[in-house]
Amino acid sequence: MREKEFGILDGLTTVGIRNSFPAQAEFRQILGKFYHRPPGGESWCDVILRLRSLMDTVSLHYAGRRVMIFAHQVVVLCLRYIIENLSESEILKIDREPDVANCSVTEYRFDSNVGKAGNLVLARYHVTAPIEHEDAPVTRAPDPVVAARG
């Protein structure tokens, strides 16, 4: 899945946004990162809508099968928001934790005892063991551009 579209703010740090697009910096401050949609970009709500369509397609065509989705930071978090039925404040609290590491694994498993007809439950989040097992370097330092844009 492609990452959130950042529009005119793509590649800018928080300081760069303030310097180049002060009105956008103010809009983001007022609306918050969950709702702010920069020109040519997406809000978190837009990403969530896109992911709900994905989940409907997966349910329709791949029900009962294992599915692997490759994604970046905001998409991983927005999938958690959908699957775990999190609130805006809950997902933004998770977003304040360290970034999702490159090539880390987030896994859900179906549990028939959850909900009326079963549901997906978080089994692993932000796990880098498969990468470490191969002695490959795991990105630990946040990308300053991505950290500012989220």
Describe this structure in words.
There is one protein chain. Helices cover 44% and strands 11% of the residues. The chain is mostly helical. It has a domain at 7-99 and 142-149: Rossmann fold. Strands 1-2 form a two-stranded antiparallel ribbon. Helix 1 crosses helix 2 (22-31), helix 3 (44-62) packs across helix 4 and helix 4 packs antiparallel against helix 5. The two termini are 16 Å apart. The model has no long low-confidence stretch (mean pLDDT 89).
Q: What would the keywords be for this entry?
A:
Rossmann fold, 44% helix, mainly alpha, globular, two-stranded antiparallel sheet, 150 residues, 7 helices
**Cα end-to-end separation:** 16 Å
Contiguous helical run count: 7
Shape: globular
Estimate the mean pLDDT confidence: 89
Which helices and strands appear, and what pairs or packs with what?
Elements: H1 14-20, H2 22-31, H3 44-62, H4 73-83, H5 88-95, E1 105-111, E2 119-127, H6 129-133, H7 144-149
Antiparallel strand pairs: 1-2
